[in-house]
Specification:
heterodimer; A: mainly beta; seven-stranded mixed β-sheet; B: mainly beta; six-stranded mixed β-sheet; five-stranded antiparallel β-sheet; 11 strands; globular
Chain lengths: 119, 110
């Protein structure tokens, strides 16, 4: 159980276009989803915390107008990179968790990641 | 948020040897977790140790936590080629927001 999927797994786009990445919890309801980005050979950096039905909470330095997050249902969160530029090229990973139920510490279950390349 | 930080060195070992990596952090934590990441893939949760625990075992994994030194270690015993991956520690300050360390790349040579 506790499977999280991401779509697409890879995307290449031209500079200036917008890209939407989906994160789905397949077999549980995710009250909270997290979005991370990871540059090559570096660590994961938390971008934002997304709670179902409410606005996302962004980490310091992350532009909310640049990275639009929507968590419209308990199984789906989307990250839209607006007007993407080459410096937005990165590996984007989501995770999902639920309050109570699966674990007392609200274990995060990670998606497989989406590789974004902006030309 | 807290920052877990591993020693930045890459580790290359022979199959069957033990691999040890360390992690340090700066602020108080609720728990510390270790993850594995294969190249270009998502993260796999390995083990969690709570702030009131000092040592924990899971199969070939052994994790220690020293809250007075704000450090943790991950030991993989009898390593296998399949253990080749990057290993990250992540700290949870109690609000479920994880702060990841830099990661240690481990290469196990068959």
């Amino acid at each position: 159980g506790a499977v999280v999927s991401q779509h697409p797994s890879r995307v290449i786009c031209k500079s200036g276009t917008s890209v939407k990445i989906e994160c789905r919890s397949l077999d549980f309801q995710a009250t909270t989803m997290f979005w991370y980005r990871q540059f090559p050979k570096q660590s994961l950096m938390l971008m934002a915390t997304s709670n179902e039905g409410s606005k996302a909470t962004y980490e310091q330095g992350v532009e909310k107008d640049k990275f639009l997050i929507n968590h419209a249902s308990l199984t789906l969160s989307t990250l839209t990179v607006t007007s993407a530029h080459p410096e937005d090229s990165s590996f984007y990973i989501c995770s999902a968790t639920t309050s109570g139920g699966l674990s007392s510490y609200n274990e995060q279950f990670f998606g497989p990641g989406t590789r974004l390349t902006v030309l | 948020s807290q920052q877990g930080e591993e020693d930045p060195q890459a580790l290359s070992i022979q199959e069957g040897e033990n691999a040890t990596m360390n992690c340090s952090y700066k602020t108080s934590i609720n728990n510390l977790q270790w993850y594995r990441q294969n190249s270009g893939r998502g993260l796999v949760h390995l083990i969690l140790i709570r702030s009131n625990e000092r040592e924990k075992h899971s199969g070939r994994l052994r994790v220690t936590l020293d809250t007075s030194k704000k450090s943790s270690s991950l030991l993989i015993t009898a390593s296998r080629a399949a253990d080749t991956a990057s290993y990250f520690c992540a700290t949870d300050g109690g609000n479920n927001r994880l702060a990841f360390g830099k990661g240690n790349q481990v290469v196990v040579i068959p």
